[in-house]
Model the fold of this input.
Amino acid sequence: MARVRLENITKRYGEETAVEDVSLEVEDGEFVTFVGPSGCGKSTTMETVAGLTAPSEGRVYIGDDDVTDLAPKDRGVAMVFQNIALFPHMDVYENISFGLRLRKYDDEEVRRRVEQAADIVQLEGMLDRMPAEMSGGQQQRVGIARAIVRNPDVFLMDEPLANLDAKLRVHMRTELQRLHRELDATVIYVTHDQAEAMTMSNRIAVLNDGKLQQIAPPLVCYNEPTNLFVAGFIGSPSMNFVEGELVENGLETNNFAVDLDPTRIPDVTVGDAVTLGVRPEDVHLTRYADSLAAPTAPIDARTDVIEPMGDEVFVYLLLAEAAAGSMEQDPATSPNQLLMSVTPDTDIEANQDVDVVLDRSKIHLFDTASGEALVHGLTDLPDREPGTTPTEADS
Amino acid sequence: MARVRLENITKRYGEETAVEDVSLEVEDGEFVTFVGPSGCGKSTTMETVAGLTAPSEGRVYIGDDDVTDLAPKDRGVAMVFQNIALFPHMDVYENISFGLRLRKYDDEEVRRRVEQAADIVQLEGMLDRMPAEMSGGQQQRVGIARAIVRNPDVFLMDEPLANLDAKLRVHMRTELQRLHRELDATVIYVTHDQAEAMTMSNRIAVLNDGKLQQIAPPLVCYNEPTNLFVAGFIGSPSMNFVEGELVENGLETNNFAVDLDPTRIPDVTVGDAVTLGVRPEDVHLTRYADSLAAPTAPIDARTDVIEPMGDEVFVYLLLAEAAAGSMEQDPATSPNQLLMSVTPDTDIEANQDVDVVLDRSKIHLFDTASGEALVHGLTDLPDREPGTTPTEADS
Amino acid sequence: MENLSEAAYAYLLLLPAFALLTLIAFYPLIRTFVISLRANRTRGLDPLGAFVGIENYVDILTGNARLARQFLDVGLTSSFPFVELGTPFFQQALFVTLAFAVISVVIETVVGFGQAYVLDQDFRGRRWVRVAIILPWAVPIVIQGMIFFLLFQPTVGFGSDLMQSLGIFSATPLANSRDAFIIILVADIWKSSAFMALLILAGLQSVDRSLYDVARVAGASPWQRFKLITLPLVMPALLVAMLFRTMDAMRVFGLIESTAGCTTVPSLSCLVVEAMFGGTRIYATAAAVAFATALVIGLIIGGYVLVFRDTEGGMY
Amino acid sequence: LGRGRSPGRVVMTAAQDVAGIMHSEGDDPSIQQALWDAGLDEDIRVEIQTVVSDSASRMQTTQSALQAGRAPPDIHMMDSGWTVPFILREQTVNLTERFSEDVLGSVNDNYLEAILETARHPQNGDLHALPLFPDLGFTLYREDLIEDAGYDTSGWGTDPPRWEEFANAVRDARDGADLNYGFTTQAAAYEGLSCCTFNEVMTSWGGAYYGGTDNLFTAGDRPVTVDDQRVIDSIRMMRSFIEGEEENTLDGYPQIAPSAIVQWTEQQSLSPFSAGDAVSNRNWSYAIAETGTEEAFGENLGVMTRPYAVSREEAEYADVGGTAAALGGWNLAVSPFSDRQEEALQVLEAFATEDVMLTVFELGGFLPPNLDLVAEVSPDDVGPVARYADVVQAASENAIPRPATDLWPEQSALIYQEVNAAYRGAKAPAAAMSDLANELEQSEAEVQTNGN
Amino acid sequence: MTDPSDSTDPTDATGTNRSGDINDAGDGDDESPRDPALCRPDGGEPTDRSAGRPDGGTNVLKDGREAELDRSPLQQWVADSISHPERVYRAMFYVAAIFFLFTTLFPFYWLLMVALTPEGQLQDIVFTPNGFNPGAFIEVFQVVPFHVYMFNSFVIALASTIVVLVIASLAGYAFGRLEFPGRTPLMLLVLIISFFPPAAFFIPLNDLFNTSFFFLEPITGDGTLYNTPFALVTPLSAIFMPLAIFILTTFYSQIPDGLEDAARVEGTTRLGALFRVIIPLSAPGVATAGVLTFIAVYNEFFFSFLMTDGQPENWAPILDGILAYQGQYQVLYNLMAAASILGVIPVAILVVIAQEKIVSGLTAGALKE
Ligand SMILES: Nc1ncnc2c1ncn2[C@@H]1O[C@H](COP(=O)(O)OP(=O)(O)OP(=O)(O)O)[C@@H](O)[C@H]1O
Ligand SMILES: Nc1ncnc2c1ncn2[C@@H]1O[C@H](COP(=O)(O)OP(=O)(O)OP(=O)(O)O)[C@@H](O)[C@H]1O
Ligand SMILES: [Mg+2]
Ligand SMILES: [Mg+2]
Done:
């Protein structure tokens, strides 16, 4: 039983509040990933679970026990530290076996498990190196091995793969998932890598500014973010946001309008400021629009920078009224830009006039003032009053 | 003049060779990214440029000068360290201004530049914190600010964004690019993040095992990798590799065959072992194959695991002969698996029989023995002898 | 034990230290303090007389105590600088002690830093150089005194002749307060620099080397690296070394006793020991001088603590 | 760790020199044997607790033992210079009460009176310690060199010359033999200066600390006479010896002593002499033993008591003037904290027998407290000292003890500081002595005001 | 060698036009001034790169612009040194090392000369002994059982060092790594002990150690601690404890929290983390505290002299052994010298080797070189 439950955890450093009133429950055997901007309190939250930081307020439960006042060693947790924190005076073998030796496993067993763990992190043959003689990524792998060798009930991993290359990451990712499944351990994981968060987690917990924003399965966070913050944070590149205002029968922005029935949207009325969100992959060139079930009306745009990424190409679009916006501006914040992602074989060039459409089923609306999500997907709305949907207006 | 030139650099640590005979030239104002697996010698190479590590052999030039024996401070370089290495006894302001104060800039100027740098890395208001009071990402940003504040000729950045979340990374990425352009500085950059490497660099240098594999613009590395290593390393998820053998009029693998004229391929003859490489995004369901100019014949497969990533979905395919391969196996190494990437709205489920085709124009062939690339794209080959191309065979 | 609060845990860890210190240090000090408030009795079995309050303290400060030498002999005048030294400078215990402490600690710090820097380098035979530099510290004070005593014995050593011919010393330096002061200073520097060097070396060795890499790339010259990285990071260790050296120097006794003698160079500790063991059993006065000495040291150290309170990593 | 003591063991403190002769292998003579022979109970065995020989350190050790009420040691060996303070502190056993009549009588009759004074209670005269051996200050000189310089030294041994003659002889001998040093003595600022060397010189000039020998042991009510002209002159003479004709010197006395004497004690002053580099040296009986052997100067060593400037008849105070020999030596005191006082007293009584004294003299070269015995032994047994028995006798007659009251330690410090300063020329002799007189008077006054 | 134009200096617009210096390798190339205010466009002026040179060489060189023409060997060396600054540092380093070696060792050399000089010939010793008497080194053991004193001192020093290190480690951990009310006052309280001359402790301790406690009787025979190692170990431990506490506090407080955290998560208690991680990582500090304590105790003057009766069989330390050669009128300087050489040098070597072992054993590789 290694359910982890945080109850109203708050942590203050002097004036600064690092974590504010966070409550969440991680089920036994669940894999939960914390994501959030730098400094939002991910590591601090983990430390309260590990027992390294005493929360200023709130309680921590592991299993059925209140462990708030328990020493780290008695909590049955293992942790991979963001700053790696290898013992510089021990070689790799000693680092990895540290916890086992403390528990007086016999040498045979220790060696077996260390070798197995070293194998998983691909460090065979480096067991007698000192940490100072290793590269950054190698050190990080030692840190991971040190945690996994112990088969604890609860794994805490703070950016364990930050220094690894893509290939190794993928490998480690699968290894960690396998371990998770085999050991049936509860895992709390911090990463800034979207792919990791999406593929590994049962649920993602999005933190911002010390506060929990949403905790939900990855695709729910991706497809139904509860607020502007989550919407903008999950997904890379970020979702496009366009501020607008609800009018009689649609949403008007500086550059374009989207038809909809405002009354169908809960909690807002005509005249309210609403932000439209759409992901880059849901912006399509009008010429490919026929594949979409519910496209919006075409929007005039001009391509700015084209960023080929190999497997996809990012196209920065300047909307009609965009006079001289520079391409560096973050499309998520510039009201006159849209980022579109297309396949590499798409025939598109910089500084070319194009028409784009948005996939209505993928449009999100947020209350601009509170940031709260209003609806996800406009196609569901008109289902009830079919009359309003099809009309689309140019900007 | 801040061209950086490495001439036959070798660095040994005792028995261990960290860098082996690396020669490369980074043009003045160029942005070159080092990528490669953990421990391949990226940091070590950087350190030889900075002057922190004396190469065992070889010379380093900056501008026109041989700086091999010059002290770091006389090389005009600034560096972001992989292990961050902030001065623990100085607050953020002092850390960032360290280099400027050494040069006796007047206080006014120092403050202005520090504030500007802090702004870029979004650390305003934290200038009087001590490093120990900051989160991992915040510390890393201080490290970046410390380097950029000095406006040097050559920037060395070793995984400067490893601890930052996606959003901040994108922001920092653009900021660094802007800086690069404005300062007209030469940048050598290490990252394990493909997106960074692809978007920021003029050229990518791929290292493996201390040896330089390829140095070329990002898309060249992506589309025309010189060898198996580069092909497998660049791109995430990794390219699919299928080993096969050249036969009379094609390439045969365990599970399928691809038509081609072996004589058109340089340096190999019928009977040679050849590896076919194809990226996940170039594997298509047969039903969508019409959008391809040159698809291969359909290949029978069965979907295994479906991994939705938000903006795309990874589909693990088991090829016909695959009996009981488990989904965790790395598709790049398992001969009976293929990884396919499809858009999220594709209608596909696990354990479903499907037909897939490969995009012939995106197929790479490698000499299995040496790993060297033979051809990139099979469409160019049959152009000359059109007779051989269209025939396709099932496996 | 792990479940104790941080404070309770800290007190638990401090318990053994304070138990030992209370028994062996605080308790004796309290008793000594009580002694200092009573009268001397030179005859009879009981060495202490009636309770006299702070009379003993008044006596030592006013020069009325039965000490062979002056604790402090200054008179107040109406004209600048408002104080007038009575006994010559080098004959006043307080001044001699202060001068000795200040000069010796300053020089030892510099020398110790130099030695530590040498030892921090990597070179062949470093171990033996380290032995050499540590050696003076391992010399018993009697021997340290003997060496310098003999060196400046005109018939035995060449020190007197040498220094006399250089015009620095008189013919009988060990009998001349000023010369003897310098000899004691040199002897102390010779021995105690090693103390500084060892502590500073430990500080140097604890500095994370990658910080030097950062500084080198940032353009720091060796001197700047020293000033901006080494010094501040070694500062806590250095402060401890200086603090304890200062206190040690303020309590100098054995060295003086075994070279020039307390007559020539009286220090505060000399007065304590002479009062206690000088044959005239004036324990109360001895206790009072000891407490007065502690008070002087306390004032100096208090100044230290105030000045360096904000030093990074400092202990306050 | 345990230190269980077998019964019959009596622990006595002693330095290496005495410790080395206490017991012996087999039948070789030893003090222990002599004690038994003298009638000590065979069950009683003296065990030596070796202590350092430096007198000041020994006083510390003794003081800390007695102050803590610790025993063993059962018998403390105390310097004659600091026995009285311990007596006054009631830290010794009163021997007058505990000794048998005849032993007490023979001690009082036969022992050198001057050293007995240092072992008596100053107020009631009771004996609290038994002198083990006295020591006397001698002036050693190279008879051969002085004779070569044309001086007749035949009578010097028992009838020393005047200072002027002596000084001239030394100067001529030094110059004649081309030696580095003439006369070496001890003038460092230490106990030896106030108790002994200066005391001798002062006495030989007819001066005294407290107006003659009557007042030596009665602190409080006595005159302080150190600012006498004679005392000042004696210092000026010493300055002449050191500096030649300079400030604060005395005409007619040549430069004969190195200035280094102001930082010399016994060892440093003896070594140039024993190395043949000096004409004359003031020292203790051990120096005779060391330099009077055949390997050293043998018969060429002349020994006498101090030259003088003012004869005893000319002197103002009692028993001063004329030649002088400072008195040192050690006493044995029984610890009142000992649980073996009876045994210890027996040991002391045995020490008071002549045979034991002679054994100590023969084995260790320590003068017997009954100095008449010196003449009874042959040089073959005890070394060169016996050769100078007449000088020893003369010295004992002219022995001057230090005024070793319980104030002496602090007064001694005052004295040697001022005298040393005056010798060095740091202070004019007259000024130094008048300062000293003030300080001593203050110290004396202490006794009256405190009454302790 | 080439001119490392410090073009990192952004205000130094001339940083790149100084290539005129590049041609003649190894002779007086300059380093552009680090200080932008000092930047000169001509750039050809030889200046001294080595800021660490204390010898005023800067001026010599600055004046010597014409020295380009005729250079003396010295200037040649200086010029070479400029292009190879490591050489200057190396040279400075050797000068400093030799200077320190000479100044620390000379008194020992002289002590050796005193030891070798036969008794009674102690005159005018400068660089050679008067006569040659190596027998002194044997005699020291014959006159007094010096080895016993050494052994006693060794045991007492070792015991005190262990007591001090253990207790001070706990206290240092509390002071250095824990926050609790009264931390500063308690530290000052510890410090106060060191304000007092040892004599201030003496009278009460002398009473205490000579008081008979019945419960000690089975151990010490008479129930007092006097004449037992405890009489030295306890006061010396207490007196050297403040120094050790301060040293350890300082070093322990500098170990990053992360490492302690890692150890605790791995399953150590806080104390376990202290002994397994913090102490090993503070090895230089711990070893130094140990060495300082050991040697200080080994050579301690005051209590060593007064807390035993000076008998080798009663745990008298080396000091008493040395003083045993000192007579009232006669001091066997040669034997004292020989004894102290014998007593000191082996211990110093032992201590240094032990320290190196401790440090390297505990921190091997901890510091990236
Ligand atoms: N001081 C050293 N002693 C011995 N080997 C070392 C030392 N430093 C690095 N190495 C080895 O040299 C190789 C290259 O190290 P380097 O730090 O350059 O790797 P890297 O490419 O930066 O890897 P990463 O991405 O993990 O940081 C590694 O195998 C490493 O173990
Ligand atoms: N010891 C401390 N004293 C003061 N503030 C602190 C301390 N440790 C952390 N903080 C602050 O608390 C906040 C949360 O820190 P935390 O380390 O939990 O962030 P994080 O989410 O892990 O960020 P990152 O992704 O950058 O590692 C940050 O703003 C940080 O500056
Ligand atoms: Mg963090
Ligand atoms: Mg690296």
About this structure: Helices of chain B lie at 42-50, 92-102, 107-120, 136-148, 166-183, 194-200, 218-223, 228-233. Residues 253 and 393 of chain B are 11 Å apart (CA to CA). DSSP finds eight helices and 21 strands in chain B.
